[in-house]
């Protein structure tokens, strides 16, 4: 076994009409990492988890833990499992469930120290900032808190490997963030996590490496940094689509948009027309549901111009947050899974799950911001960021020239300069694609 590989799944196959079959599964999981296994419902995730847990035994292949065949004794001692159905005892208290790992005793006495049981539970919850009454029975807690108790119980047992099966099922955003904190605490202490989920966006958020299981086979394994740069590749693996035709189609759409932008900006249009054009094009390129472009007087801290594309009861992004994003001069990305998500808006962002912002910088005291709104969790690629930042820069030039120069020969010359810039970008993209 390679250095730091703690678990190796070697040529694992399983055939049974009662479960999704697995075929020649090969995986290597390193100590201290969060290894995500993703796949759609019916891809074989549950089968694999049950094999790891020892529930299914009639499989072909080998499970190697630290170079040795995985046996039940080691599994019970070194593995912790979070299944979709809770293993907590609902009639017992929270503290009692946590203490089932190993009840604290009164010195050498066989009697249980209930004072220590309660103290241990309180300490565990304080560590993660949880307000859970440890004297309550599990059955009296909300399902979200029950799941957190179960995960903390697993972590307190200090196993070498935690296998978490759909850990965020039925959790709200705040609870999910607490879950991530617990997972990070565990891995920082040297633990290893196998994170099994059908939610690929979760894997991008928490994992170091991602394996995609499709119809019982491993379609591919990606480092998370590579997956973030090219999420389309991850999605294609997830959907069982190995073709790049869709990506090529997207590239052609972007190039077509840039050509049209060049033609548009080489002619004479009003400022609002230019902003509307950019709002529509950027939404199309980035796959956004809606877009707002604001022009802001930074000195007066007021919005002086605004266009909205496909606007439908969008939440209002706070003005001070917009100015802060512009000053940072970086792509800004936020999803409902982030703790501070709601604090960025004037009202509750009920139908918005993802927000992406790009600053539109100018040489005057004016500045702009492109706000893209998504109804689902969206992960941008490195290529999409380049497209977005390029169009944002050109929008800044167009807006500045339109406002400050008026309808003059200089304006037309400026727009021709933009056209030349965009055509250079098109050439670079074409070279890159070839």
TrEMBL record:
<dbReference type="InterPro" id="IPR029016">
    <property type="entry name" value="GAF-like_dom_sf"/>
</dbReference>
<dbReference type="InterPro" id="IPR011495">
    <property type="entry name" value="Sig_transdc_His_kin_sub2_dim/P"/>
</dbReference>
<dbReference type="GO" id="GO:0005524">
    <property type="term" value="F:ATP binding"/>
</dbReference>
<feature type="domain" description="ABC transporter">
    <location>
        <begin position="7"/>
        <end position="240"/>
    </location>
</feature>
<keyword id="KW-0677">Repeat</keyword>
<dbReference type="GO" id="GO:0016887">
    <property type="term" value="F:ATP hydrolysis activity"/>
</dbReference>
<dbReference type="Pfam" id="PF07568">
    <property type="entry name" value="HisKA_2"/>
</dbReference>
<keyword id="KW-0547">Nucleotide-binding</keyword>
<keyword id="KW-0813">Transport</keyword>
<dbReference type="Pfam" id="PF13492">
    <property type="entry name" value="GAF_3"/>
</dbReference>
<dbReference type="InterPro" id="IPR003593">
    <property type="entry name" value="AAA+_ATPase"/>
</dbReference>
<protein>
    <submittedName>
        <fullName>ATP-binding cassette domain-containing protein</fullName>
    </submittedName>
</protein>
<keyword id="KW-0067">ATP-binding</keyword>
<dbReference type="Pfam" id="PF00005">
    <property type="entry name" value="ABC_tran"/>
</dbReference>
<dbReference type="InterPro" id="IPR050107">
    <property type="entry name" value="ABC_carbohydrate_import_ATPase"/>
</dbReference>
<dbReference type="InterPro" id="IPR027417">
    <property type="entry name" value="P-loop_NTPase"/>
</dbReference>
<dbReference type="InterPro" id="IPR003439">
    <property type="entry name" value="ABC_transporter-like_ATP-bd"/>
</dbReference>
<dbReference type="InterPro" id="IPR003018">
    <property type="entry name" value="GAF"/>
</dbReference>
């Amino acid at each position: 076994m390679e250095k730091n590989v703690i678990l190796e799944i070697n040529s694992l196959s399983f055939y049974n009409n009662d479960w999704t079959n697995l075929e020649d599964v090969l995986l290597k999981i390193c100590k201290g990492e969060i290894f995500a296994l993703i796949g759609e419902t019916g891809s074989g995730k549950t089968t694999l988890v049950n094999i790891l847990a020892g529930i299914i035994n009639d499989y072909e292949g080998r499970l190697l833990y630290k170079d040795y065949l995985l046996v039940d004794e080691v599994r019970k001692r070194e593995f912790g499992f979070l299944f979709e159905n809770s293993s907590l005892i609902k009639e017992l208290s929270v503290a009692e469930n946590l203490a089932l790992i190993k009840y604290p005793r009164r010195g050498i006495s066989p009697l249980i120290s209930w004072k220590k049981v309660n103290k241990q539970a309180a300490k565990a919850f304080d560590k993660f900032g949880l307000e859970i009454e440890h004297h309550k029975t599990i059955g009296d807690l909300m399902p979200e808190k029950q799941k957190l108790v179960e995960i903390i119980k697993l972590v307190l047992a200090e196993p070498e490997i935690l296998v978490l099966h759909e850990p965020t099922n039925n959790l709200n955003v705040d609870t999910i963030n607490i879950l991530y904190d617990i997972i990070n605490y565990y891995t920082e202490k040297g633990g290893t996590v196998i994170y099994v989920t059908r939610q690929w966006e979760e894997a991008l958020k928490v994992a170091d490496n991602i394996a995609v299981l499709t119809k019982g086979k491993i379609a591919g394994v990606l480092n998370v940094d590579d997956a973030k740069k090219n999420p389309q590749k991850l999605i294609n693996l997830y959907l069982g689509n190995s073709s790049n035709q869709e990506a090529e189609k997207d590239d052609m759409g972007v190039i077509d948009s840039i050509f049209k932008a060049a033609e548009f900006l080489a002619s004479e249009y009003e400022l609002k027309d230019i902003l509307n054009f950019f709002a529509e094009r950027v939404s199309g390129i980035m796959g956004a549901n809606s877009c707002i472009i604001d022009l802001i007087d930074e000195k007066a801290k007021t919005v002086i111009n605004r266009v909205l594309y496909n606007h439908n009861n969008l939440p209002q992004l706070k003005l001070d947050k917009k100015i802060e994003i512009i000053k940072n001069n970086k792509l800004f990305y936020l999803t409902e899974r982030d703790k501070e998500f709601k604090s960025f808006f004037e009202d509750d962002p009920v139908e918005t799950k993802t927000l992406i912002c790009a600053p539109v910088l100018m040489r005057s005291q004016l500045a702009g911001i492109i706000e893209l709104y998504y109804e689902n969790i969206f992960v941008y690629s490195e290529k999409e960021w380049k497209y977005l930042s390029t169009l944002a820069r050109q929008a800044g030039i167009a807006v500045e020239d339109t406002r400050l120069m008026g309808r003059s020969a200089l304006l037309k010359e400026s727009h021709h300069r933009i056209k030349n810039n965009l055509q250079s970008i098109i050439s670079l993209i074409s070279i890159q694609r070839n």
